[in-house]
Amino acid sequence: MGEGRIIFLNGASSSGKSTVAKALQEALEEPYLHLSVDSFFEMLHPRFHDAELPREVMIALMQGFHRSIAGLASAGNNVIADHVLAGKPLLRDCVELMGDMPVLFVRVHAPLEALKQRELERDDRHVGLTEFQFERVHQGVMYDVEIDTSTSSPEECARQIIDALRAERTGPTAFARIRDMIVVEAV
Predict the structure, then answer these.
(1) What are the chain's domains?
(2) Is 50 a catalytic residue?
């Protein structure tokens, strides 16, 4: 069995990543595992859910999440990863791990006001998190495909992603291009 495919959804909190991931699982013909960064945090004991975790714990948790995505795909599983890559170190870790893998990098976005409204309507979100992440999550990042969850339903977003998966790719993936740019910057 070869490598599985990775659909990597990146967007601020409340952008609709998990909802789109579920729509993708429903629409895709092949089985895909859904790995969510939120679910990874939920593996911690509840006393740590609202706590400010030490930096080294956060780094280890994120690196573990990234390696779980890569490991599952390396074992032949198709994966939908649902993440908030708010910062260059997180992006760097992902592209270094998965730059040579079949990753479709998806920008999941909506206008800030729509995201803030969604955040207020949910009881599992910290008010202000979306606004904090909004500028950081897509800053200086290139994608293979972009979806707007304020103008398209989850099913329409899933269809756009599936169309991009099926399209004939000419050239390297966004992950490979970002990885190569980071290597050039380091030189």
Answers:
(1) 6-186 (3.40.50.300)
(2) no
Close Cβ partners of 101 (under 8 Å, ≥ 6 residues apart): 3, 6, 70, 73, 74, 175
Provide the CA 75 distance to its chain's centre, in angstroms.
20
Dist CA 183 CA 70 (whole Å): 20
List 38, 50, 82, 144, catalytic entry: 38
Rounded distance between C-alpha atoms, residue 109 and residue 144, angstroms: 14
Q: Is the per-residue pLDDT at 74 higher than 90?
A: yes
79: three-class secondary structure by DSSP: strand
Nearest to 161 by CA among 65, 71, 81: 81
Q: CA nearest 157: which of 20, 41, 2? A: 20
Could you list the beta-strand ranges (E) of the chain: 6-10, 33-36, 79-83, 103-109, 145-148
Q: What percent of the chain has pLDDT over 90?
A: 64
Residue 27 has pLDDT above 90, yes or no: yes
Contact (CB, 8 A) for 69 and 6: yes
Residue with tokens 């990753």: 103
Q: Residue 127 pairs with which residues in a beta bridge?
A: none
